[in-house]
Amino acid sequence: MIDIAPDFNYFPSRPRQRYYTLLLFFSSMRQKLMDILACPVCKFHPLELKIEKKEGDEIVEGTITCPKCNIDYPIRERIPNMLPPDMR
Ligand SMILES: [Zn+2]
What we know:
Elements: H1 14-26, E1 48-55, E2 58-65, E3 72-76, E4 79-80
This protein binds zinc ion.
Zinc ion is lined by residues 39, 41-42, 44, 66, 68-69, 71.
């Protein structure tokens, strides 16, 4: 897992958001990642995690949900898609 600074304070800019998405792409989804994930739309933290399939400490399939704006971010093949819906 790639260590992301805890003060990685969300998404002030598009380039940073892309960088963040890229980081997530190269780090497989683990429960621990929930500590640093915030909603890319409303910046809410913490997000809710629903696990559908797990292997060891890796979440293979599941959904990350923002309880504030009610947007689902899917986890497929261990990779969380944290792009806002309008960028997918
Ligand atoms: Zn949100």
